[in-house]
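Notes continue from the previous slide.

Worked example: a multi-chain complex. Inputs as given:
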Amino acid sequence: MLQPALVEKILNAALESGGDFAEIFVEDRTDRDLGMLGGVVERALSGRDYGIGIRILQGVFSVYAYTSDLREEYLIETARKAARALKGSSGDLVLNFNQIQFEDRHPILQRPSAAQNSRKIELMRQAHEALKTSHPLIEQTSVGILNWEQKVLIANSDGLWAEDTRTYTRMRMSAIAVDGTQRQSGFRGPGAYAGLELLEQMDIAAEAREAGRIAGTMVKAGYAPSGQFPVVIENGFGGVLFHEACGHGLESTAVGIGASVFAGKLGQQIASPLVTAIDDGTIPNAWGSLNIDDEGMPTQRNVLIENGILKGYLIDKVGSRRMNMPPTGSGRRQSYKFAPASRMNNTFIAEGSSTREEMIANTEYGIYAKSMGGGSVNTATSDFNFAINEAYMIRNGQIAEPVKGATLIGKGLEALQHIDMVGNNLDHGQGMCGSISGSLPVNCGQPTLRVSKMTIGGRKGE
Amino acid sequence: MNITDFQEMLFRQGEQYGYTDMEIYYSGSRAISVVVRQSEVDTYRITETNGLSFRGVIGGKMGYAFTEKIAEDSMMFLLEEAEGNAAVLEMEDDDELFAGSEQYPQLNTYSALLMQTDPDILIQAAQKVERAVLASDERISMVRQSAASVREHELLIANTRGLHCHQQDSVGSVSVYLLAGEGQDTVTGGWFEYSLTDFSEIQLEQIAARAVEETVSKLGAASVPSDNYPVILREDAASSLLQTHASIFSAENVEKGFSSLVGKLGQRIAGSNITLIDDPLMPGVPGASIFDAEGVAARRNELIQEGTLMTFLHNRKTAAKAGAETTGNASKGGYKGKIGVSYHNLYLQPGTRSLDELIASTERGILITELQGLHAGTNPTSGNFSLACLGYLIENGKISRPVNQITVSGNFYDLLGEVEELGNDLRFTGSCTSPSLKIASLSISGS
C-alpha cells in the first residue's frame, strides 16, 4: 500500500520533535451494500474508503492526525504538522522493518465482489419470502447484505510492519407486524469474519422466520411490569449484558486513568463464583475476531474474570504505558479516522452446569429475556441499561405471556454478584459496538443465565 | 487532485463510458482538536477527510458509488461500480437529476476568523476550563477530559444538468467531562458550549461552573418507587427524545411503513400547544443550510401546526410519489449514503414559562435531565420507549433530591398529545431541538 522507504520518511518526520514512538495505519476498504424492501431491490451502494492515520506518542501523550490525501509530500507534511504539537528534538531514525508473521486463522472461501450481486439478490429473495410468510400479521419486510473488505498496513518506529485483509459479511432481516394501530419490528442479523460462504452455509429461511416470529409475537404483547424481578437471560446475544455491565469497564481507556469501577480490583472477588468471563479475538471466522489488532499485535484469548475473581483487563498500547502492564492485542479502531483504543473482540461468559429448564422452573415470578437489543454503560459508575426485544413473564416456574417495552437497568458490579445460575449452552450473537474509537463488529456470548434481581423498566398498571 | 479538475475529468470519462447524466456530491472537512488532562495536552488531533459520491444514469437506470480517494485511478472504480449497482436496482421510479432551483437563499454559515484560531488558544481554553473545574469543589475527583476544537466542513454538489451548489460551515466548541465522589458514591457529568463565529466568544467559566453543578448535584442519588409520575423532560433530554423519533416525519419512512403517521396528514396528532418547525434558514444555529442533498433550495416548513400534521418531509422522489412538492429535505448520510430524507434544523416552538416555573408548578414529580440507551430502548415504528434516565425528584414545587436507577416508559405518538406545557428554554445545540416538556403522567420504574 505504501513503500517502506516512504513509511520510514513519514515516521522520521513524525518523530522530529521529541516523540518516542510513531505509527502509521493505512487503510483501503471496499464496502458493498445491497438492500431489498418488500421484495424489491432498492439499495445498491458500493465504495472505497482510503486514508492514513499517523500517531505519535511521547509517554502517554498522543498526537493523532489523519488524511485521505496520500500524496507523498502531503503525508510527510501531515506527519510534520502533527509533530509540531510536541516540544523537543530527536535524531535520525533508521528503521529495519520486520514483517510480522502470523497464521491466518480466518480462511475466506468466497471473497465478496460485484460479480456476485445476482447471487446475493437470490439469497435476499429467499429471506424476503420466508419473512413474508413467517406470521399472518407481517406487513413489511426489509433485507440487506453488507460486505466489506478492509486492507490494512500498520508500521511503527519499533520496526513493526504488518499487513492484513479482513473480510466481513452480514445479513440483516427485519419484519414489521401490524395489528390495528400497533406496529412492531423483529430483527435478525447474523454476521461473520467471512465471505459469502457464511450465507451459503446458513439456513436463511430459519433465521428469517425467527425475525418474523418475534415481530408477530411482540405486536400482540402487553407492556412489561415495572420493578425489581429475577431475570432469566437467554444464551447468545444475551451476553450483551456482560458486554455493557462489565466489559467496557475493563478497557484500559477507562481503567488506565482510574475512571472505572474495576480499577485497582485485580485479584478481588467482583462477581459471583459462577462467573468466568473471556474476551477472545482468535475464534476462527467469528464476527469480532482479528489476526492482528489495529496496532499490529496478534490477538489473543484474555481471561477477564475466573470464578468471580478479576484476572485481567483489555489493554492497548497507551493503556499499557499508563498501567505498566503488557498490551493484550485489544487495540482497535473503526478506520484510519480513529486513534486505536482498548476494545472488546468476542466477549463471553463460560458455560456452567444448569439447564434452561431448571432456571425457568426455579423462578416463581420473573422475566424471561429471550432476545436482547443493545445498551450502554457509564464505566465510571457501572450504571448500565439495555433493551429486551423479546420478553415473557415467568409465572409459577413456567414461561407465560409475552411482554414488550422492557429495558433492564442496574449497576455492573451488583449484576455480576447477582448471577445465581449459569447454563450449559454457550452461544454467540453479533453486534456493533460504538465507543471512543468508532463502531466495531463484536460478538457477545453467554449460556442462558439467571440474575436474581434486576430493575425492569416497563409500565405500571398496564 | 482538486475537486473541480476531478469532476470535469470524471464527467468526460463517464460520458465516453456511456453515462447520460452524472452528479457528484463532495464533502470535505478539516478539524483541530485537543484534549487536556492533568493540565497537560493528552491528545492532539489534526484531521482532514474528503470523499465523494457519484451517481449517474446508465442504460436508463441510476447507479451509485463512492470513494475517499480523489485521484485519477478512482474514476474507473466509480464508473464500473455504479454501473453494476444500477443493473441490480429494481425500482421503477424515475430518479432524474435536478438542474437547480431558480433562486437560493443567502446565509452566512462560515467564519474564517473561527478557523484561524491558533491551536495554542485551544489548549489554553481546555486547560482553563479544567483548572476552573478542579478549583471549584473538593468533591470533584477527576476531570476525565477537557477538550476544545474547531472544525470546518465544505459541501459541493454538481451535475451535468448544470447544478452547482456549494456551502461551507464551521464550528468551535469546548467541553468538559468530570467525575465527582463522596464516600462510595461516584457520579459523572459535563457540559459544552460552541460558537459558529468566534472562538473567543465561548464562555469558559460558564462551561466549568455548569459542568460542576450538573455533576455534584447528582451525588446522593437514589431510586424512587415504581409509579406513574408527572414528568418534566429538561430541554436536553426532550431534544434527544425528539431526535430519536424525528424519522417518523420522513415521507420515505411513512411510505415504507416504518412510521405510524401513515394516513394522518391533515389530522390532529398532537395537542394544540405543539408546533413543529424545520427552519434551515434560521441564522446562527448548527443546522442552517441553503440547499438540500439534491441541490433543492432549502425552506422553512411547519410539520405540525397547533397539533395538526401539515406535511411530511420530502425529497423529490417521495414528493413525486405522494403527488406533493419537495420540501427541500433530501439528505445524505455523508458521501457514503444514498439520497434519503431528513430535517435540517427541527425544533418544537417554545412556550412562555421558564424551567424553574415549570418545576414550581409541579407538586410532586420527576425532572429528567438525561436519557440513556436511546439507540436501543426506543422503537420509532411503534413509538414505544423504555429508557434508563437520571434526574431529580420534585416535591412541593422544588427539587428535593437527585434520582438514579430508574427508567421512564411511554409512547412518543401518545406523548405528542399529552404535553401539558412547553418551556421557553430552547437551546440550539444540534439540528434537532426541543424546549423542556411537562407531561402529566409517565410510567417510572424504580425500586
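Summary box: The longest strand of chain B covers residues 140-159. The longest helix of chain B spans residues 119-136.
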